[in-house]
Amino acid sequence: MLERLAGRPEQFPGALLLTGPSETLLESEAQRLAAGLLCAGGDADSEASRECRRRVAAGMHPDLLVVLPEGVQIRIDAVREAVAFGAGKPYEASRRVAIVARADLLGLEASNALLKSLEEPGRHFHWILAATRAEILLPTIRSRCVSVPVALESRSDRAAAWLARGFSAEDSAELAGLEPVSQEEAPALLETHRGWRDEVLRAIGEGVARRRIAPLLLLAEALAHAPPQRARLLAELLADAAVAAGTSSDLFRHKAVAGAIHDLARRRTPEALRRAALRATDVPADNRRGNKRLHYESVLLGLLED
């Protein structure tokens, strides 16, 4: 469906909602679709078309506006600015596009301000909303958009793609579980990911083995400010530990740290670890649903309960 939309700008809906688990993938797909709308016409391989797409990717096209959260939510002033932008005439393209990144962080007032424009955006204006938690959007917003899921490739397909680029089997397997990046960025991403994973396991191991609260509280604070990819790592490690007693480490998501995972599994029951892993996945979207630091404190301190 996305390919059909990208290839037919004249049939593009006035309001499109992209949903999926990856913020990075949603952002890149929203930019790709916006480029298809704003850079349509003429030779797609021409220098003018390539320059147009580069400006869209950089957020520098005069007929593109990207609405971003300020702090923990998207505010009404940003939505009003986008509505006014859409009412204006295009500068270069035949239409205008507004991308609402992290649309699941729309405040109530901002959501209400958006409704009428979503219903009647006009002939030359398109909204593209992106949300990893579309279920918390107002039903009236979802009903006014054409909703399209953006799924990740399977983990095995992503691992095979990294392997084909010359990465080792171990590196490819780990990159397959991370956000999509370029080949040049992959080594730095791996180093950061492994350092963070070691930090999480050290804090949990120290807290559980020595029954110390301080390392767990410090980890909760770090998780509260971590991007979703890093925060999700906690649930993955707890899930590996939950199944460690009854399965081979070959089935772990994080085989490289199997020793630390087995050590944690020996200290907590599978049920306690399973419960913690499930709770770790239910992270508050923002302060409207509760404080993230308190959420992670509850998850981690729960590991000390007998």
Please provide a written account of the structure.
This protein has 306 residues and is an alpha/beta fold. It has two domains: 2-149, Rossmann fold, CATH 3.40.50; 185-304, Zinc Finger, Delta Prime, domain 3. The protein has helices at residues 2-7, 23-38, 47-57, 76-87, 108-119, 139-143, 155-164, 169-175, 186-209, 214-224, 228-243, 258-267, 270-281, 292-301; strands at 15-19, 64-67, 96-100, 125-131, 146-149. Helix 4 (76-87) links the parallel strand 2 and strand 3 (96-100).
Extract low-pLDDT stretches: none
H and E string:
HEHHEHEHEHEHHHHHHHH
Mean pLDDT, rounded to whole units? 87
Helicity range: 40-55%
Supply the number of structural domains: 2
The count of helical stretches stands at: 14
Spatial strand arrangement across the major sheet: 2-3-4-1-5
Examine the secondary-structure arrangement and name the CATH architecture of the largest domain: 3-Layer(aba) Sandwich
CATH topology call of the largest domain: Rossmann fold
Radius of gyration: 22 Å
CATH hierarchy, class of the largest domain? Alpha Beta
By helix and strand content, what is the structural category? alpha/beta
What general outline do the C-alpha atoms trace? globular
Q: What's the CATH H-level superfamily name of the largest domain? A: P-loop containing nucleotide triphosphate hydrolases
Biggest beta sheet attributes: 5 strands, parallel
